[in-house]
Amino acid sequence: MAPAKNFTFICGADDYLVGRMGAERFAALTADVPDEFSRETVNGFAANMSEVETAINRFRESVQTVSMFGGRRVVWLKDVNFLADTVTGRAEGTLKLVEDLQQLLDAVNPAEIGVLITASPVDRRRSFPKWCEKNADFALAGGDGDDAGEALAGVALAEARLLGVGFASGALELLLAKVGANTRLLVEETRKLATYLGEGAAQGEGAKIEEAHVAELTPNVAEGDFFEAAEAFFSGDLKWTLAALNRHFFSGGDARPVISALQNRNRILLQVRALIDSGDARLGPRGLDGLPKAQAAYGKHFIGATDKSSYHLFTQNAWYVGKLAGSAKLPTLRRLIDNQQEFIAAFEEIIRRSGEQEEVLREMTVRCLAA
Question: Residue 12's domain spans which residues?
Answer without folding.
Answer: 8-140
